[in-house]
Amino acid sequence: MHAFILAAGRGERMRPLTDHTPKPLLPAGGKPLIVWHLERLAAAGFRDVVINHAHLGSQIEAALGDGSAWGLSIRYSPEPPGALETAGGIAQALPLMGDAPFLVVNGDIWCDWDVRRAHSLAGRLAHLLMVPNPAHHASGDFGLEGERVVFAHGEGTLTYAGIGVFSPAFFQDVPLGTAMKLRPLLDDAIRQGTLTGERHGGRWVDVGTPERLIELDAELRGSAPQ
After folding, report:
1. What are the structural domains of the chain?
2. Are strands 126-131 and 159-166 parallel, antiparallel or unpaired?
3. Residues 6 or more apart from 73 whose CB is under 8 A from it?
4. Which of 52, 58, 130, 185 could form a disulfide with 158 if both were Cys (CB 3.0 to 4.6 A apart)?
5. Residue 52, strand partner residues
6. With 90 as the cut, is the pLDDT of residue 12 above it?
7. What phi, psi does 12 have (nearest 5°)?
8. Which residues, 6+ apart, have CB-to-CB distance to 92 below 8 Å?
9. How far apart are alpha carbons 77 and 82 in whole angstroms?
10. Could you give the CA distance from residue 184 to residue 215 in angstroms, rounded to a whole number?
């Protein structure tokens, strides 16, 4: 199974930190955010990783290289200035990932979910990891009825964690080179009853602001989870 790391965002809310450094390379706990992902993927038996990039993408390639430092094989999917959003970026990278389902991870999160579980989800069209709503996203995204992701509002909503397992077929109608968000595809799958998910009760951080980066850095330096 391939893993795809989303690393093309500009990181507007992280400015000025991201004016000169791409967000996935910002350090927390003594290492870049994206390196936490690479280490977890390698420990879970992943070997093939694809990373998209746009803003300061050359820095990402220079820092990570071919992935051999982690026992991985990394390939890159460059995008034009402004990037292609999540669905557009994934669709653009599909030729690098073959015909099998793949794991998608946002490059600007920190999460202790056991990525080995992704292998058991390969039969799904799309499967999302959901987490309790953080204070900065109190309204949440969706609800869960068993494993089925549903539309929901108010109590009972959860937030999409930026981690999912997807079949290439999920993106078959996304025109190549077109900027497109993931949400419309997820909404369509909910209406068709084909979107599944699960709730993660462990640690998850959306590192979207300098303040949250500082908090995560302090937490990881205090007792870095493995």
Report:
1. 3-217 (3.90.550.10)
2. antiparallel
3. 47, 48, 49, 66, 67
4. 130
5. 6, 77
6. no
7. -55, -40
8. 52, 77, 79, 84, 176, 177
9. 14
10. 32
Q: Which amino acid is it at 179?
A: A
Token pair of 147 as six digits: 């494993």
226 pLDDT above the threshold of 90: no
Token digits for 103? 């794991």
Using alpha carbons only, what angle is made at residue 44 by residues 205 and 90, rounded to the nearest 5 degrees? 65
Question: Which 8-state DSSP code applies to residue 225?
Answer: -
pLDDT at 199: 97
What DSSP element (H or E) covers 196? Answer: strand 195-199
Mention every residue, 6+ apart, whose C-beta is less than 8 A from residue 206: 108, 109, 134, 136, 137, 162, 212
The tokens of 205 are what?
A: 């951080």
Nearest of 169, 176, 8, 7 to residue 91 by alpha carbon:
176
How much is the CA Rg of the chain, to the nearest whole Å?
A: 17
Q: What is the pLDDT of residues 83-113, one digit of tens each?
A: 999 999 999 999 999 899 999 999 999 999 9
Looking at residue 209, its amino acid is T
Q: Select from 107, 97, 81 the least CA-distant residue to 179.
A: 81
- Mean pLDDT computed over 68-88: 96
Q: What would the mean pLDDT of 53-75 be, rounded to a whole number?
A: 97
H/E stretch holding 144 reads strand 143-145
Identify the three-state secondary structure at position 198: strand
Pairing of the two strands 27-28 and 31-32 = antiparallel
Write the burial class of residue 100 (CB in 10 Å: 0-12 exposed, 13-18 middle, 19+ buried).
exposed
pLDDT of residue 154: 79
